[in-house]
């Protein structure tokens, strides 16, 4: 049996509510500007234009409750998001069948080096330097859909040091979860272990060392993170 020429990296897994078993993570897709108010605050038209996606890396996930302020940036922003975890996949999935692929849901933070992202936008370059850095995806445990159902409405909110910063509702998603899965499956072959971040409501803003963040999504759970 052949071995590896270097030590193999450990698989990335996420905790699951109600069990000691873990959810193995394959890929992470993120939907950009999927709440109308956030699209406006970022200077874009909130009409139902075609959705677009970027990716984070599985090892960007962090379940520690701490967010180390990253290097090379002086403007790091919080973005609270509903995370969708898939138990199966495929290509060209109909939106009417899409929720059959979902294992469960979590609360996530798409932490963003906004200054570096802005520089990449201006230069017409990819966003990864602003989005896919170490610890850039603090996340809660995954709650199986057998317990939550498939939330299509409910408050999504983020407080920083006890002050409300982001406040929206899942029913404000421009592209709903079944549509996101269906659209994405036309361009990528989805599979068990994929995570999808569904977008953030308005109110994104900077964090500083020592800040305490608390994100909540009705029916899904909460996430507490300290910036260190």
From TrEMBL:
The keyword 4Fe-4S does not apply. The keyword DNA-binding does not apply. Residues 28-227 form the Fumarylacetoacetase-like C-terminal domain. Pfam families: FAA_hydrolase (PF01557). GO terms for molecular function: acetylpyruvate hydrolase activity; metal ion binding. Keywords: Hydrolase, Metal-binding. This is Fumarylacetoacetate hydrolase family protein.
